[in-house]
Predict the structure.
Amino acid sequence: MSLWKKVAEQFGKPSGFLGSVAGFIMANRSSNIERNEWGIGLLDIQPSLPVVSDNK
């Protein structure tokens, strides 16, 4: 497997050091930040609503 393919796969399922690098890039890329803020804005989260559930 080529190095490029190993790096590219980290953006689909990050793991290890290369996964950390991919995650950092995805979290800090300006286009992703804008897209994430837009998506979160669509959720209409209110202070009285639980965001994380402990339902198992």
